[in-house]
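Homework help board

Subject: predicted structure for assignment chain

Our instructor gave us this sequence and asked us to write out the predicted structure in token form, then describe one feature. I got the tokens but I'm not sure how to describe them. Can anyone check?
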Amino acid sequence: MRMPLASRWPCGFPAHNHAPIFATAATQGLARGVIDFSLFRQDNGITTASDRGAIKVMAKVPFSVSARAARLIGRENVGTPQGAVTELVKNAYDADSAVCAVLFLPRWSELPAKITQREHEALQRLAPAIDKFFVADGDMWARASCDFVEDQDALAAAFAQFLDLWIVDNGHGMSAETIRDRWMVIGTDTKEINDRSAGGRVVTGAKGIGRFALDRLGQECELFSALPGSPETTHWLVDWTEFEGAGKVISDVQAILETETRHLSDVYTEFALDSVLPQVGPTREGEGKPLDFANGTAIRIGLLHDVWDARDSLRLKETLEALLPPHDRGDFDIFVYDHRAPTESGFIDNFPPDHFDYRMVAEVSDTGEVTITLDRREIDVQRIRPRVFELDTMKKAPFRKEDFNTGSVTYTTDLARLTGAKGETLADFEAIGPFSFTLYFFKLTNPTSDNLLRYPQKNFDVGKRRRWLKSSGGIRLYRDNFRVRPYGEPGSTTYDWLLLGDRVARNPAPASRIGWRVPPTQVAGTLHISKVGNPHLMDQSSREGVMNERALDAFRRIVIALIREFENDRAYVLGQFSAAFDLDHKEEKEAEEGRRIAEELLGKAENPDAAEDNEASPTDGSQSDLFGQQTPPAGEAQRDNELALRQVSQAYSSEVRKNESLRDDIQVMRGMATLGTVLVSFTHELKQIKANIDSRSQRLSDAIENVADKERLAALTPAHNPFRMLERLRRQDEKVSRWVTFALSAVSPAKRRRRVVDLAEYLSGVESYWEEFLQSKSISLDADPSASTGAMVLAHEIDLDSIFYNLINNSVEAFVKPSAPIERRIKIDISEEDDGWINIRYADNGPGIPDEFNIAEDIFQFGASSKKEAVSGDAAGTGLGMWLLKTVVEEYRGSVALQSAMGEPGFSIGIRLPLHQPASAEATNG
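My token output:
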């Protein structure tokens, strides 16, 4: 239970009911949550207050932090040794260093005669059997003599594992004053106040606790630092075990700070660092720049808490590889050296493979404008078939031949168009601030010979790609050029923090179809944010993750929208290549020719006697073929057979491609058919539910009328009148009943049988089915069935539903979007032609085809949809409606033609279907 205020007051309130004697303005201020300390006076450190002669003795008591608590706070924020090293590397970057060297070196250059108690304990952890080589010598341990070579080797091997960890940079260094006034102040806000370094870098630290990374790594720490051009070196030394002990407060722990008159290079010579520090930077553009370590900071961490074997140091190198963005920085490098593995030491090389398939670079400005550059390297431009650029879809930027010759395309858009967001959601997106995004895409298998015919893709080193993606894959977040974990961490649950895998599972479309989703295992990316430009995306004090979940969600949705731009571009390009290949390789012609040759060869195989007779009666070195014609000599016959086999092989490949495409279609249709099957299985139940719905409001009304007090009913307001409520329920019931009727009619067995359909009767039924729903949306439908009298088609009625229902549904969804108020109209006109065709014109006066497509005909692409989910920004529709319409019409040997332009108001489409002619008419015409 919470104590009353009087019980918590240091001096206590009197037991009587009156106000305390010193209930002056000061204590009244306390009641308001404010204390005015100016009302008190100081007497020898004792604060007193007086009012009407009464005095209470008070003291202003300062807060104090125990040394242990300060240490725990630091350790909580630096959880792993790799994270601790990362913090120290960041400090080197903030000091404008050109390079940071992480060195694992032996503690002694030669075997020591004596070691301390703590060194002995650490050595025992590394090699428990080493104890026999030492004897106690007061508070030290003396090394005993080794008579056997094996013992000497074992002792040397143990000492080789006893490491000091050095973090060395060549930045601007620190003076003694800086160490005392900033480095020694825990939680300093210096980097919050000055968010840029002297060299102009945005500093990565801000919490003032990075120095506890030293405590996380080892028991003792020694720091040497020198300013540019200074002949002096500042020396700082601390023993972290001093923080331990009951009752110690932070001010009880002291470090040694001194200034030595010697150059920093002398320190490097003393500790033999000059032989391992790099003298030249990594090679870039054919040369490496000389490195100067005359100034900067060197930190030695001893008596390490963790056992670092050679594999651990290599893993640290991989961790630091992920710390810096791939290929993006040229002014800061990291050098890792382990004396046990010198050949595997060196500068971190985090350059991605040159032969990526796609690269997207996106720049999002603080105004919401987005500039996107797509670098297409998947395709061998020289092998693109001419037919590709003859397609209407490939005659407009950014898909023209010159765009592919250039290799990359750049265009500008904005967050509203990318995400489909409006209002508060768009404001959330724009509040994220400016950032950049670089995405690499890699295929992980080389194309097959059949794929190369359709898609002129390049070959590559699969192993190199897989190795690089194993360590550098995933989409990672960098704040001011340093990693924000754990996003994109290989092998962790946050590797796919954008949930790309879920998107693939929801829509497993092939790469050549709009709606294809990129797998998370085939991408690597870097997202660059900054402390200044993206204040809502600040990382947690533990350096693990972003604090503001709402901001992170908005950021994630923008990134997904950007990835969708790459996905759509690649799917569109591959889809056009596939279409061009199909035009150059008519599958029906190839298959028919292959079947003819196969039947001929099979005929020969089934009648070998006839073939032998032909071979036994040569004439002039020639022979007769199956048709009694002269065949060429044996050599030419062999070539003809080889040609025939190639043709059969091509026919087979054509059939395989066709079947693969059909399998993809069947997979989609199977899911839709399952929904229909489920609906059919509930037909009886739905009919019973509809019967109950149709009458329940009336039954309830009758029941209430029989028992209700009419005078009390008359006194009720309309909002509380049960009959008014029932009337609202009745209207809702009618809507549900209407849709149940509509659904049952759609799965009627009669619609699944092929028959001659009178379009006048059919359109009359369409009007009836849709009438009430369209009226509720203030939409009029004029199908003019009288004008279509006599227009007959031989079809499945459910196929006609696929045509007209999809069109009407699209019109409704377009009409209900926010727009200027208009009279909403849908018009269907039908006319017959003398050449045996029916022309259907469907039109509405809605907003028309949105201009986000490349060309208007793209609406017929599989998976193409302009509808966006408000939350995810993904396509809200299936993207199948117009594709189904076109597919159905073409299966009936008809054609579809858009009659309205993209980006203009109003939608219009023309459909041609063959007119069904009775048998007598066909005989007359034939």
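Reply (TA_rk): Your tokens look well-formed. For the description, you could write something like this. DSSP finds 28 helices and 30 strands in the chain. That's the kind of observation they're looking for.
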